[in-house]
Amino acid sequence: MAHIFVLAMPEGDEPANLIQSVSMELERLTTHMDYGIKDHQDVMLLVQNGLMDCIAGSAGNVCKGLIAEKEYEWDIEYYTRIDTTFKPTINFCYRCIEKRWNL
Known about the structure:
The chain is α/β, with parallel strands linked by helices. The chain has one domain (about 5-100). Helix content is about 50%, strand content about 15%. It contains 4 helices and 3 strands. It has helices at about 15-35, 50-55, 55-70, 85-100, and strands at about 1-5, 40-50, 75-80. Strand 1, helix 1 (about 15-35) and strand 2 form a beta-alpha-beta unit. Helix 1 (about 15-35) packs across helix 3 (about 55-70). The longest helix is centred in the first third of the chain and has 18 residues, at about 15-35. The chain starts with a strand and ends with a helix. About 15% of the residues are buried.
């Protein structure tokens, strides 16, 4: 199983709901893997440049901590324009397919 999460900066006065949702899902997934409830899962994060500097509060800190903890296990791609992540994301998907079916 593979997961791709997108972390984008809120526009204007938008609340940080997306960041909070992604952070909660990452935390849940990580906990399930750590306790053997789920097998290892491949994870890719697409993180908008500057986001890590501007997120604050508990959701932001949890997210930052998870990313720092899993930095060498997860594929993390930082972007300014989301279209620059297409090739790395496709490559991630191919690697996951190859691993899944032992190609």
